Amino acid sequence: MRNLLAFLAKYNHWMVFILLETISAILLFQYNSYQGSVWFTSANAVAGKALGAKAKIESFFSLSKVNEELTLRNLYLEQQAKTLAEKLTEATKDSDWMRSGQFEILKAYQLIPAKVVSNSLNSPDNLITINKGTSDGVEQDMGVACGSGVVGVVYMASAHYAVVIPVLNLQSKISCRIRGREYFGYLSWEGGDTQTAFVDDVPRHAHFKLNEWVETNGFSSVFPPGISVGKIMHVYNSPDGLSYRLQVRLSTDFSRLRDVCVIDNRQIKERLEVLRAAQDSLKLREEQ
């Protein structure tokens, strides 16, 4: 208390000055309409700027959730577009469109949104780490995609994280087909350019054009059919001359990859198991 009194006694002239200034400001702005309006306008401008800054900060921190929702929506919309193409094929019998029954809508599968926490691009054996694991339903050998196309396959998973072998890995090999043509091959990467990969084993009798799309064919238990892989840029002969080799510009930009979805492949496995069981049954009948 003694220190407070000493402080007030030492600086009493400043206290009186501040008090008089405050009283003068109140009298000026309260009893003079022009000065009051100027004060009101200035205060509103400052408050507006403060609220605008607050809204921008909140919007920035909400972008993460928005990106996850957009990734899911892009995947769903892509598959819905293919559904319309399939129905058009049934109505017009146009062989240039995808044939009926060649894919299932991705919405029928459970999708697990995840974020990329690490991503390498400069190694021959690149790996991606995502922030979802076994506690979220992620398991080994599940496919991973983003809003623009295929990403890779889950290699291993812990409780809260998983490591993905992306397309940009020398060990990656994904079964795919030319969209609308049904000719299939195997996608692989040979290092170097992160936007280019190759599709091998495309049959010599295949008919297709440059800039046509390559997509997953659904022949494996990892990816459902119809997920984009990339566009055909060049066509080469295979070393043995028995097939084509396609150079593909990948639809996924791995340098900007942030949000992905893990595809629960249990339904895909079940479908393939039923199909294989039916094929085995037919073989037994033919043998009998």
UniProtKB/TrEMBL annotation:
It comes from the Bacteria. This is Cell shape-determining protein MreC. It comes from Hallella colorans. NCBIfam families: PRK13922.9-3. Belongs to the MreC family. It holds the Pfam family MreC. Gene3D superfamilies: Rod shape-determining protein MreC, domain 1, Rod shape-determining protein MreC, domain 2. The keyword Signal does not apply.
